[in-house]
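ok new one. same drill as before - structure tokens go in, u give me an amino acid for every spot. 407 of them this time. try not to just spam alanines like last time pls lmao
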């Protein structure tokens, strides 16, 4: 008799308990004072919080709670991403305990994440047992690295989906079908096509994914394709869309063209920072003829329209990490732009603590500081919102003709 999705998830949780138990015992024993047992600690904690005190070492939900509530005990063997797997599986276990249904996509993702956590806990035998719970010829197949992809209506068995440049899906056998995903070079956009998106993630374990609103504008967040937060809950390409590429610079370019800013990086999987906007601005700086706005004028002479600082050829400005912010703003060609403090971190390195807590750090008329000079040189004034941890850069007011002539 074929297993139901709930049966598969239930059996996977049983295997998880067998593989995770020794791992939790070992690391909690090293973390707690001698003579203290983690089960006693968790029981006492539950009673203090008014929760049921009866617990068992074989309960997978308890083991996951131990990992989630004692992250310092596991920060050496587990990465932040793998700790996030434990939190994700805990939610799956709660859904299973409350008799909620599991779709094929939910089941595939749950088993995939359980197998990943077991491998991180050095329980390879149990990880293989979880992988084997997926049917050999069913609607879900597990990729070699533990990711999964839909086969229903996507490709023939063992034939990966290929997104053709013309926006039509093509199988390895040469057949094509209508598709809403579009491709621009190495960057692919997926709208209303969860299956194709999951297939791409399964085939590109080292790739990157931007999650952004359906319009393609606004807050963009970049993840590694292995990040559990972008494949844990369907629908994936409905209200939000996914933009995928193996090229980090390509995705930064995609977001830069639409929003004038590189995407924020996920705080769980921590993809690396890109240098696309900075590199593009530096290339403009090397050729002043194509540089926009006040920066070009400063290199070639005086800017009579904006009260920006003049760059004296006799006293060139010292290099500063905030030059990247200056060049980024110059590339906006006097268009307003709002950047979060995290996005500015990606451009300049890391903002100091005072930038996050003191509004005066963003004062506009203090050329003695490199950071103030950066947006002034680009022809902007900064308008910080400390509660939102973001700053809007707006073009500086134009000089009236009578003011310019009076100088």
């Amino acid at each position: 008799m074929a297993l139901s999705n709930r049966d598969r998830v239930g059996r996977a949780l049983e295997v998880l308990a067998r593989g995770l138990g020794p791992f939790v015992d070992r690391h909690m024993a090293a973390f707690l004072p001698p003579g203290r047992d983690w089960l006693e600690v968790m029981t006492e904690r539950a009673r203090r919080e008014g929760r049921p005190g009866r617990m068992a070492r074989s309960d997978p939900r308890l083991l996951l709670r131990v990992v989630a509530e004692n992250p310092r005990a596991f920060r050496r063997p587990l990465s932040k991403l793998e700790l996030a797997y434990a939190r994700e599986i805990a939610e799956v276990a709660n859904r299973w305990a409350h008799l909620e249904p599991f779709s094929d996509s939910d089941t595939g993702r749950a088993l995939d994440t359980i197998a990943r956590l077991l491998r991180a806990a050095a329980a390879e035998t149990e990880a293989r047992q979880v992988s084997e719970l997926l049917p050999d010829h069913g609607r879900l197949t597990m990729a070699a690295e533990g990711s999964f992809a839909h086969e229903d209506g996507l490709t023939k068995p063992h034939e990966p989906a290929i997104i053709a440049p013309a926006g039509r899906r093509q199988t390895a056998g040469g057949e094509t079908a209508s598709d809403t995903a579009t491709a621009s070079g190495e960057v692919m956009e997926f709208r209303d096509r969860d299956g194709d998106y999951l297939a791409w993630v399964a085939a590109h374990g080292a790739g990157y994914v931007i999650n952004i609103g359906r319009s393609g504008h606004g807050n963009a967040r970049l993840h590694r394709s292995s990040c559990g937060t972008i494949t844990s809950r369907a629908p994936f390409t409905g209200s939000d869309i996914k933009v995928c590429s193996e090229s980090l610079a390509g995705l930064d370019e995609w977001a830069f063209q639409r929003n004038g800013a590189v995407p924020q990086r996920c705080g769980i999987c921590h993809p690396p920072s890109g240098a696309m906007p900075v590199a593009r601005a530096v290339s403009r700086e090397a050729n002043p003829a194509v540089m926009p706005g006040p920066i070009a004028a400063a290199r070639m002479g005086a800017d009579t329209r904006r009260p920006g600082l003049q760059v004296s050829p006799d006293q060139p400005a010292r290099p500063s990490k905030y030059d990247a912010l200056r060049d980024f703003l110059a590339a906006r060609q006097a268009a307003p732009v709002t950047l979060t403090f995290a996005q500015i971190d990606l451009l300049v390195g890391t903002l100091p603590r005072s930038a996050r807590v003191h509004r005066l750090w963003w004062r506009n008329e203090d050329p003695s500081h490199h950071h103030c000079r950066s947006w002034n040189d680009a022809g902007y004034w900064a308008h910080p919102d400390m509660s939102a941890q973001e700053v809007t850069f707006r073009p500086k007011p134009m000089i009236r003709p009578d003011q310019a002539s009076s100088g």
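The first strand starts at residue 140 and ends at 142. and btw The radius of gyration is 27 Å.
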